[in-house]
Design goal:
two-stranded antiparallel ribbon; disordered N terminus; 6-stranded mixed sheet; Glutaredoxin; alpha/beta; globular
């Protein structure tokens, strides 16, 4: 009788131990699964050459106190916005502020010959430039991580007629940081940023923003 009691007790202890081990295994598996899901959903940032097809946009509403005091003649001594003096593919230089104060909006396009989305939007830019150059469009391309030879070859092949310069990290920082390319920034003639778009732009998208910039410029001229 005593032996049966001992055997029953041993079995009870074995079952208890087995349950405890099972619980421990299940708990470990659950923690591992949660950790795995967390790691799978935490992706690294994409390379700056790849951006969402939808793109991201940020609109800037001009400060009325600034706009109302803006005069048609650009005051370089009071200007505190972004600027650059960079080399063109042919070896000359171009200065950003030289294009301000002309009563025309200025569009800056960050791109690269190695960037697929950038190359995809270029035919749209060619069409918009051909249509709006006579209406006051100023457009400049800033090629990042590129060489003069590659930029010259591509612009000639693509029929690009607007000026190009070769940018660098410091240039990107000066323009508020470039999170991905293509990035297109719209300025008024005083250097005030009106909007920026990260991602390839269509003709329609460019036209809407450019018409808005031209309207803003006509309002500036009437002040």
């Amino acid at each position: 009788m005593k032996q049966k009691t001992l055997i029953a007790a041993a079995r009870s202890e074995s079952l208890t131990l087995l349950k405890a081990l099972s619980f421990a295994v299940l708990f470990a598996l659950s923690v591992g699964l949660l950790t795995s899901c967390s790691e799978s959903t935490s992706k690294t940032k994409p390379d700056s050459s790849e951006v969402s097809k939808e793109g991201t946009e940020k609109e800037f509403t001009p400060d009325q106190s600034v706009t109302s005091n803006t005069v048609s003649n650009f005051d370089l001594s009071a200007y505190e916005g972004p600027t650059f003096t960079l080399a063109t593919p042919d070896g000359s230089t171009m200065t950003f502020t030289d294009m301000l104060g002309k009563g025309k909006p200025l569009v800056v396009n960050f791109w690269g010959t190695w960037c697929g989305p950038c190359r995809r939007e270029m035919p749209e830019f060619v069409k918009i430039y051909d249509e709006y150059k006579s209406k006051g469009l100023q457009l400049v391309g800033i090629a990042l991580r590129d060489t003069p030879e590659k930029v010259k070859a591509y612009t000639s092949q693509a029929g690009i007629k607007w000026p190009m310069v070769l940018g660098n990290v410091e240039t990107a920082k000066a323009f508020g940081g470039i999170t991905g390319i293509p990035t297109t920034i719209f300025y008024d003639s005083q250097g005030l940023e009106l909007s920026r778009y990260v991602g390839p732009m269509s003709f329609k998208m460019f036209k809407e923003r450019l018409d808005s910039a031209l309207l803003h410029e006509s309002e500036l001229a009437s002040l």
